[in-house]
Task: structure prediction
Amino acid sequence: NNRSEFNSKINGIRADGNTHMKDGFYLADQLITQAQADSRFQGYNWKIIFLSDGVPNDNTNFGGGPDVSQDPTLVANTFKARNFRIITIGLDLNSLVNPVYQYTISYTQIVSYARNLLTNLASPEINNIRNYYESPTTDQLESIYQSIAGGIRCP
Result:
C-alpha cells in the first residue's frame, strides 16, 4: 500500500545537523521524473513539501553560515516553471540563535535569511492557499500538515 510505504519513508528520516537543500531538490526531481514515466501517475499535480530550518549547509561549513552552493532557489524555480506546487515549512527558526552554531553573520540576520529563503522557495499564495508555514516547535507540525492536506486534491 502506497500510504504505508510513504509513512515508513517519512518515519525513517533523521536529522544529521546539515541541510543539503539543493541536493534534496535534485533528488526530488529524479524521483518525480521516474514517477512521471509511470502510467499510474499520469495527470498528477505534483507537490513538494520541504521542511527545514532554512539554512543551507553541508559538512564543510556547518555553523559557519549559509552555504550558497546548497541554495536550492534555481532548482525550485524550475519546479515552479513546471507548475509544481512547493510548500515550505520553517521548523524551529528560533533555534538558529543558539551560540553553538557560531554563524559568521548575526543571529537576527541568520533567522531573517532562513525565513526569506523558505518564503521565496515556496510557490506564491493563490486564492488564500498558503505555501509557507512556520512551526516554532514540532508540536505545531501535525496541524500544519493537516492544513496542507486539506488543500490537496488527489486524482
Summary: DSSP finds five helices and three strands in the chain. Helices lie at 2-11, 21-36, 73-81, 107-121, 141-150.
